[in-house]
Amino acid sequence: MSASSQKQPLLKKITTGLTVCTVVTGSTFFHGPPVLALGLTKLFKKSRKVDETNIQITNSWLTVNNWLIDHVLPNTEWDISVDDNLDLNMQGRYLMTCNHQSWVDTTVNQYFGLTRMPLTRFFTKWELIFIPFVGQAFKILGFPMMKRHSKEQIAKNPELKYRDIEEARKSCEQLLSQPFTLLNYLEGTRYTPEKHAQQKSPYKHLLKPKAGGLALALNILGKDVDALVDMTIIYPNGAPGYGEFWLGDVPKIAVNLRKIDIPEWVHGGDYEDDLEYRDRFQKWVDDLWAEKDQLIEKMKQNIASAE
């Protein structure tokens, strides 16, 4: 193998990295200031038109990202399947659950959803508000931001528990004025073999699900939700880092979306204070996660047999 052929992959990677970095940085500085400027006007007067304009600007930013994925990372093969009973559209109101392995998961969600579903928001930490541009954009775009308190803090001041819930309630209720997709990573953290072993998870491919966030969203949004959508993401070559993805080092990504039926008993329950309801809700989520674990195993087997 000649020296030039050995250097080619590295040269291509450097070129890809520089292209992505330049375009994303330029796009962020182009789209970011208008979102922040319009967001400031909401301090004085709430406006649906402002919200719609900010979503359009954000979708324009995502369009640039998706263009990079399609044209600068063409070696990434996408295998996307959507169940026949799941009818998605840009005017819908969706709750979404997803397994969580990498920061790339959110980019995968945005890549799929840009032309199929309303802008995806997700529960995020209040501390992110202090990150320039990003944190303020999350707040302006209506991402539910949670001030998570430790068990020790809540034990000393029980009101903190309900203050968090009330903040989440206000954020979720604001979404009802528009189409939305609200994403919840039920595992609460990214999957790693170490975390899986530490938890003694009963699932082969997943961490234990935390049902509280989903229960809260269903309690607030209730029957205004058009569908509960479960997204499953598979990286056949292992969960990638964010840099690996944007350097074109992820050869294949498989995605499945299915509709989850919401039982009638779910609506109107009190997850925080009704222990019987909480146990029943957690059992329902555990069963959904067992189905998801089997789905992941089947997807992996199908990918392996096709290679």
Automatic annotation (TrEMBL):
Coiled coil: none
Top-level taxonomic group: Bacteria
Protein keywords: Acyltransferase, Transferase
InterPro entries: Plipid/glycerol_acylTrfase
Entry-linked CDD domains: LPLAT_LCLAT1-like
Protein name: Acyltransferase
Stored Pfam families: Acyltransferase (PF01553)
Top EC class, one word: transferase
Domain Phospholipid/glycerol acyltransferase stretches: 94-236
EC number: 2.3.-.-
A single MF term (Gene Ontology): acyltransferase activity
